[in-house]
Amino acid sequence: MNCRYCAEEILEAAVVCRFCGAAKDGAGEWCAPAMPAALPASRPGGLTIKSSGWFFVLSGVFSLVWVTSDVAFLGAVRSGAFAFVYNFVFAALFLAMGVGLIVGRWWGYRVFMGGTAFYSLDRILFFVSKDTREAYLAASGITQEVRGMIDMSLFDDGVFLGTVLTLVFWWGFGFYIYFRRGYFVGGG
Measuring CA to CA, how many Å separate 173 from each of 53, 67, 98, 101, 122? Predict the structure, then answer.
């Protein structure tokens, strides 16, 4: 016999349709299947966005571990309180962005986009200032002997290119987040 609710073939002796959940009542009459609890809607990009969120959390944790590390900023390598505040701000920003991406709330979308703009400004300040890049390379631990043997402008070009590529990929992910903003719930 066929189930009157889903049309799948079931046994005559069946008391519950294994396909749709329709069941016989005490009088032997078939009753409509109970409405299933609403399944959470599949949110586009969920796995990619959550995985990226965990990488942001990991970046935030690493930033906290090295919160006292020196920072190349505005033409010099900064240390002390400035470096602590700088690294702490970025650690907090990365943690907030990561948690926002993982939980998929609307505030996470806003934090991510704002954090992207803030990080971009920092990186732009880095790559437009040759003095800052030179200070960064000077503090990198490359000895004077090595500096005498190689062309340091190649290293500067590499740092410049690496910074530009980081921003390109970051903004590529930002556009992905923008086009997958339906993943974020709870606001508009």
Answer: 12, 26, 13, 12, 18
Task: Report the C-alpha gap between 142 and 146 in whole angstroms.
Answer: 6
User: Cα 19 from chain centroid?
Assistant: 39
CA distance 49 to 171: 14
Percent of the chain with pLDDT over 90: 40
How many CB atoms lie under 10 A from the CB of residue 186? 11
The per-residue pLDDT for range 99-126, each reduced to its tens digit, is 999 999 889 999 999 999 999 999 888 8
Residue 23's φ and ψ, nearest 5 degrees, are -140, 155
CA distance 109 to 171: 14
Domain ranges, ordered by start, for the chain: 1-35, 46-183
d(CA 107, CA 129): 33
The whole-number pLDDT of residue 39 equals 42
Strand partners, 185: 105
pTM above 0.85, yes or no: no
> 122 exposed, middle or buried (CB, 10 Å; 0-12, 13-18, 19+)?
middle
Residue whose tokens read 């900023």: 73
Residues 46, 185 contacting (CB under 8 angstroms): no
Q: Using alpha carbons, list the distances in angstroms from residue 142 to 44, 78, 114, 162, 179.
A: 46, 18, 35, 18, 43
